[in-house]
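Lecture notes, part 5. Sequence design as translation. It can be helpful to think of inverse folding as translation between two languages: the language of shapes and the language of residues. The source text, in structure tokens, appears below.
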């Protein structure tokens, strides 16, 4: 029976799709489809071709191993082809594989085959060639027969030995393994890229493959790459042991890294046990694995079994649930973190990925959302690996539906309604609610009570979390209304410690303006900035009244900090919190603002005070000068306009005279204040 036109058409369409995705994956290092989806396409094509052998074309992707090497790198011929592995997605498929092995080998049908079992590492396959124990060449797998010369890049990987240890290694030894990027390194790399608004890698495998194919080895050297070796290729002038497991032991002796999780297991039952054990440990490993590989341990058996077109008959990859899947975005909402970061979160059509059903995934931040152009209704790749929060890694643009909806950042915090501030240099949008926002409450309170802020001794993080959990403390002002009776109901809180805590709460009321500002926890306002603001403005009213320009007049306050401070005091919730604190008895010493008055009679003039004035203290004189727009500094220089001298004036007066700076006494100062 010949294949129908529909079957032929479908096969051709699958081939075209697979070719395109091969190119994205192997050449561009930028796959568009999750592996599992790609595998589905390949399996569908394989099944069609199996059932209708007459439709197989010589250029069908099923007839080849991988993609063409890229021209930018020199090309390398693999003396022994670098093959791929057949996949088993179920126990049944594994049992079929084992049955085929037993049938082909001349062994007792009931006997259990020994398999070398290893994790299937999710990275990029490489070949390393050693001549007389020296690394002479590193290559990618490429299409299996020709790869790319990446010697300069593999040399930068610390785990790749440049010369072999010990003795007894063959004159020519080609080893094969997987270069991978451990999950932590991958996360960190992406976080940095995200913060800079740069392109992130979709997954660690992609990051490894992309890093290996950098044209500049210095870039590769900066990437946290590692390698495990799992096979040998060409061997001349030497002998290797007779089992896969022993070969790996030997490789380890010569200085290669091999995966410490490998085991020798007996028969299918042993394989399944290993599969389950690795599955349970999968999330705990430092690197991504996408399954386990079983290889017939005896190399003479391997030789008897031989190969089919793309893969050996003596090995199979038993796959774990995919860590990347396709699903549809139902909605995009915003979550507020403990530090006020407003994060877009995708509500998904539930999908089974990484071993669990996922219905929410993070979109990280607005920059990232825009860069990836994620819209409601889009089909996306969701990734869940390890215990990392599931994330949306890419959109399948060709599946975008009409009416897919763009989402804008919220102007108001979805939790507390405060303004959300989006600062260009920072990818993150933040709720300005601070103390008021329930999402940020516990963190804000911990900061408020900390030693360098209000210094409430005995009010630790655990206690704060309890108080927030029972809703007893909503704002810092509530701390000042706690009673012993209430406190003793909390965990690990006796009468004595409750009394002690209330005392330190009471004691914290008398503070300084600078500590108070720091305690408010305005983002970007650390101790130094709080102190600069306090001494510049002197009092709360002046600070609250300052616009962004006036704030930038404070030393070390730039546009970002000015915007944050301004937004904080604009928020009426924050004003209410401050009022509550003052009403509860929090006090500090205020003084006149030192902010220069922009249009006073002395604006722009610089004064130095020396000696004792008869009719006013020096502080009073200072206040008067500042109120008229002048500035008071401590030492005389060319920049000084006037030195005001009183009784027992010292060296400052002499210096002024030397420099030709004008000098005035108290009467002269009063005249200046009145005259101009
Ligand atoms: S053995 C002839 N062992 O999986 C056998 N491959 O799907 C060739 N891989 O290209 C491979 N971990 O990149 C083998 N422990 C392991 C592996 C492993 C990951 C990769 C390798 C290979 C691909 C085949």
């Amino acid at each position: 029976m010949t294949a129908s036109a529909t079957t032929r058409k479908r096969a051709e369409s699958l081939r075209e799709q697979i070719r395109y995705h091969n190119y994205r994956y192997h050449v561009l290092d930028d796959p568009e489809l999750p592996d599992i989806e790609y595998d589905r396409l390949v399996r569908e094509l394989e099944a069609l071709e199996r059932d209708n052998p007459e439709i197989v074309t010589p250029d069908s992707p099923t007839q080849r191993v991988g993609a063409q090497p890229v021209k930018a790198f020199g090309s390398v011929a693999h003396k022994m082809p670098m093959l791929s592995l057949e996949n088993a997605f179920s126990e049944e498929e594994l049992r079929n594989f084992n049955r085929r092995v037993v049938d082909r080998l001349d062994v007792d049908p009931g006997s259990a085959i020994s398999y070398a079992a290893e994790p299937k590492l999710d990275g990029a396959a490489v070949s390393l060639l050693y001549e007389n124990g020296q690394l002479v060449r590193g290559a990618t797998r490429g299409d299996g027969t020709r790869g790319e010369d990446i010697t300069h890049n593999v040399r930068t990987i610390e785990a790749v030995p440049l010369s072999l240890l010990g003795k007894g290694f063959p004159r020519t030894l080609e080893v094969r393994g997987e270069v991978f990027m451990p999950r932590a390194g991958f996360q960190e790399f992406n976080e940095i890229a995200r913060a800079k608004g740069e392109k992130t890698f979709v997954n660690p495998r992609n990051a490894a493959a992309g890093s290996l194919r950098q044209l500049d080895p210095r870039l590769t050297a900066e990437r946290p790459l590692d390698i495990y070796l799992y096979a040998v290729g060409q061997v001349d002038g030497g002998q290797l042991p007779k089992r896969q497991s022993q070969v790996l032991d030997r490789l380890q002796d010569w200085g290669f890294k091999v995966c410490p999780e490998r085991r020798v297991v007996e028969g299918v039952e042993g394989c399944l046990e290993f599969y389950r054990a690795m599955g349970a440990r999968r999330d705990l490993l430092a690197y991504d694995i996408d399954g386990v590989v079983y290889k017939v341990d005896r190399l003479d058996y391997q030789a008897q079994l031989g190969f089919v077109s793309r893969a050996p008959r003596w090995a199979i990859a038993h796959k774990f649930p995919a860590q990347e899947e396709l699903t549809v975005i139902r909605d995009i909402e915003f979550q507020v973190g403990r530090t006020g970061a407003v994060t877009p979160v995708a509500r998904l059509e539930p999908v089974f990925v990484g071993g669990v059903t996922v219905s929410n995934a993070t979109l990280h931040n607005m920059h990232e959302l825009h860069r990836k152009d994620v819209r409601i209704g889009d089909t996306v790749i969701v990734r869940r690996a390890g215990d990392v929060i599931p994330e949306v890694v890419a959109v399948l643009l060709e599946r975008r539906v009409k009416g897919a909806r763009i989402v804008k950042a919220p102007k108001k915090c979805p939790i507390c309604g405060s303004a959300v501030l989006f600062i260009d240099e920072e990818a993150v949008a933040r709720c300005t609610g601070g103390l008021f926002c329930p999402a940020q409450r516990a963190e804000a309170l911990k900061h408020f009570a900390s030693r360098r802020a209000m210094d409430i001794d005995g009010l630790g993080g655990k206690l704060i979390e309890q108080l927030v959990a029972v809703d007893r403390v909503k704002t810092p002002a509530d701390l000042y209304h706690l009673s012993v009776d209430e406190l003793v109901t909390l965990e690990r809180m006796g009468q004595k410690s409750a009394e002690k805590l209330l005392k330190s709460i009471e004691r914290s009321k008398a503070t300084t303006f600078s500590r108070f500002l720091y305690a408010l926890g305005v983002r970007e306002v650390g101790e130094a900035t709080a102190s600069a603001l306090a001494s510049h403005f002197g009092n709360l009213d002046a600070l609250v009244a300052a616009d962004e320009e006036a704030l930038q007049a404070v030393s070390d306050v730039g546009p970002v900090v000015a915007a944050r401070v301004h937004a904080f005091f604009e928020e009426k919730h924050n004003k209410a919190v401050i009022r509550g604190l003052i009403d509860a008895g929090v006090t500090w010493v205020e003084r006149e603002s030192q902010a220069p008055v922009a249009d006073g009679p002395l604006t722009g003039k610089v004064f130095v005070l020396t000696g004792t004035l008869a009719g006013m203290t020096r502080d009073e004189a200072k206040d008067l000068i500042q109120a008229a727009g002048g500035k008071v500094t401590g030492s005389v220089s060319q920049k000084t306009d006037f030195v005001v001298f009183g009784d027992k004036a010292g060296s400052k007066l002499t210096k002024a005279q030397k420099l030709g700076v004008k000098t005035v006494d108290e009467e002269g100062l009063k005249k200046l204040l009145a005259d101009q």
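The translated text above is only one of many valid answers, since several sequences can fold into similar shapes. The longest helix spans residues 5-27.
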